[in-house]
Amino acid sequence: MTGLEAMPGIVLTTSVHVYPSTSLSHRLYRAEGRATVRIGSRDTDVTLYANRNDLARLRDLLDNALTQLDAASGPTAA
Description:
With 78 residues, the chain is of the alpha+beta class. It is built from one helix and three strands; from the N terminus they run βββα. The protein has a three-stranded antiparallel sheet. A hairpin with a 4-residue loop joins strand 1 (24-29) and strand 2 (34-40). The longest helix has 21 residues, at 52-72. The chain is globular.
């Protein structure tokens, strides 16, 4: 194996807190069918590398989390 196939799925485990002031950006690599998502600034950041299918999985996960948060903050039973 060479390249990305030889690498484990997770290289590093870390936690990231996203605040209103946290910089979020992305960069497309169209020819490779992937993108990077950068959380943080130039000095301190985490960059996620993912192909299109994994980005869709992440989008769906975040959408599900938002849906559950919205449902939890709705009206409560008396």
